[in-house]
Design a protein that fits this description.
This protein is mostly helical. It has one domain (4-203). It is 47% helix and 10% strand. It has 9 helices and 4 strands, in the order H-H-H-H-H-E-E-H-H-E-H-E-H.
């Protein structure tokens, strides 16, 4: 089984080879450069969904459904010196948005900075996150099996434009719609093990 550290190192190699993409979509059609979250997904799953070139909304759902990718994305998010943004999935109920955090971090000029992180700086952060992940005790994934650790499921309620993130507004300008999430019924909006996952881990 590929470890979180191994996934992050594969993602680093992919970005180093293809280049880092921080614009619309998760992979640039012209250059094949990859967004940081997309690189981690490809490293974890060994597949490149076509939606990464054309559909940001579906791409987010695909990434969020991959437990090993979400573990690595969260490891990178936890290693950064900024807090993960949160998404309100129900009144008074917020969950961290790790995908949005790492994507925005790679594309945004930091406070008191003059430019977004360079490709080398992004690669360095990924490698540091891999090093940190390697020092943690090896554990099996205990993410909820229903939501894949995302803590939420997609609903049909559309998010108003004023509540969208900068990246989501880019997608909205191209006609994409963003809907609210609802808490996962099996883990109540928290990415922890379900009883089934805990039983499987105990039996392993």
């Amino acid at each position: 089984m590929v470890t979180t550290a191994g996934t992050l190192r594969r993602a680093e190699h992919l970005i180093n080879f293809r280049g880092l993409h921080t614009g619309d979509q998760f992979i640039d059609q012209a250059t094949n450069a990859v967004d940081v979250a997309a690189a981690i997904f490809v490293a974890a799953e060994g597949a490149v969904p076509y939606e990464f070139y054309t559909d940001e909304v579906t791409s987010l759902e695909i990434i969020a459904a991959s437990a090993p990718a979400m573990l690595a994305i969260r490891a990178l998010s936890d290693s950064l010196n900024t807090e993960a943004c949160v998404t309100e999935i129900a009144p008074g109920h917020d969950v961290p948005d790790y995908i949005e955090h790492v994507c925005n971090w790679a594309a945004t000029t930091p406070v008191f900075g003059t430019r977004p992180p360079s490709t080398s700086e992004v690669i360095g952060a990924i490698l540091r996150a891999a090093q940190t992940a390697e020092t943690l005790p090896a554990q099996r994934s205990k993410l909820c099996e229903t939501c894949g650790g995302h803590g939420s499921l997609i609903s049909d309620t559309e998010i108003p434009n004023e509540e969208l993130s900068p990246r989501q507004r880019q997608g909205a300008a191209h006609g994409r719609k963003y809907t609210r999430s609802i808490p996962c019924l099996h883990c109540n909006g928290h990415d922890h093990a379900t009883p089934i996952a805990e039983a499987q881990t105990a039996a392993a």
